[in-house]
Design goal:
This protein is mainly α. It has 10 helices and 2 strands. The chain has 2 domains: 66 residues, no CATH class; 190 residues, no CATH class.
Length: 281
């Protein structure tokens, strides 16, 4: 009679059957986390952050900056091991990527301007006055951060991660997996306000995948879209000039005032995806 082996290690079994591309992705994220962790601990001590308490925006920034400063260095090391380059991921410094970045940025900001314009016309939100000098002091630093952070995320998620997964999966499956990882990793920084945004974050990842392939494999258009969305939302949040009136339910405008957690924000993403689809075809 056959005897079942009850001592099988699930982790070892997974590593034995997992595709090479998935193992390479795991190795990258483990290496990235390991390299950043000592720096992250020092930053956490410096900002006096207690893990049992949610991160304040001013506490999150040093952790985020240190994490994203390390990411390209770790990816450069991974490229040396895997025999790849940044250009394989759609990231090359040339005029074309800068033009796509500008186009995507403009389109991203315009899409949110239309979204908030419609909500204003319907009486769902109001705008608070702000001094021009104060607004300008917010817009420029936020712009630089948005371009840098979005570029780093695109290089990792729509660049490295998507490209590696395509070695063993179809483009559809690779897009779904990479977008899911992109959405879930946002939970690291904040859970309460992020959970309602998870479907929107996943859809955002899918739209950005479409943007990459609509731009013939370049990350420029996806980078621009991502930057435009981040810059607009972060600037409005920092300035505090938008107030929801409460006339519309949260499921429409977004729980906790987050567009990605509401039906209108999802509709904005779907509309953007539809335009990109026709653009790509």
């Amino acid at each position: 009679m056959a005897v079942l082996n009850t001592n099988v290690d699930p982790a070892a079994t997974f590593l034995a059957v997992a595709p090479a591309s998935l193992l390479q992705v795991i190795i990258f994220f483990v290496a990235w986390t390991s390299c950043w962790l000592p720096v992250g601990v020092l930053c956490a001590i410096a900002i006096n952050w207690q893990p049992i308490k949610p991160l304040e925006p001013q506490q999150k920034l040093p952790l985020l900056i240190s994490l994203y400063l390390i990411a390209p260095l770790v990816l450069w090391g991974a490229n040396a091991v895997f025999g790849a380059s940044f250009s394989d991921y759609g990231f090359s410094w040339n005029l074309r990527i800068l033009l796509s970045l500008g186009l995507g940025f403009s389109f991203g900001v315009l899409s949110l301007a239309i979204l908030f314009g419609i909500q204003t016309a319907l009486g769902w939100l109001t705008w608070q006055p702000i001094e021009v000098r104060q607004l300008l002091s917010i817009l420029l630093p936020t712009l630089l951060l948005a371009i840098w952070i979005s570029g780093t995320e695109e290089l990792i998620f729509r660049g490295f991660l998507l490209t590696q997964l395509r070695h063993d999966y179809s483009i559809g499956v690779a897009a779904i997996i990479s977008s899911l990882i992109f959405a879930l990793l946002h939970l690291i920084w904040e859970q309460k306000e992020t959970i309602p945004q998870l479907p929107g974050l996943w859809l955002m990842g899918m739209v950005l995948v479409l943007a990459r392939f609509g731009d013939n494999g370049s990350l420029g258009l996806a980078w621009g879209l991502h930057s435009g969305w981040v810059w607009a939302i972060a600037s409005l949040d920092t300035a505090g000039i938008i107030t929801y009136t409460g006339i519309s339910p949260e499921w429409l405008t977004g729980k906790y005032g987050k567009p990605l957690a509401g039906a209108t924000g999802i509709l904005c993403l779907l509309s953007t995806g539809a335009i990109l689809w026709f653009y790509a075809n």
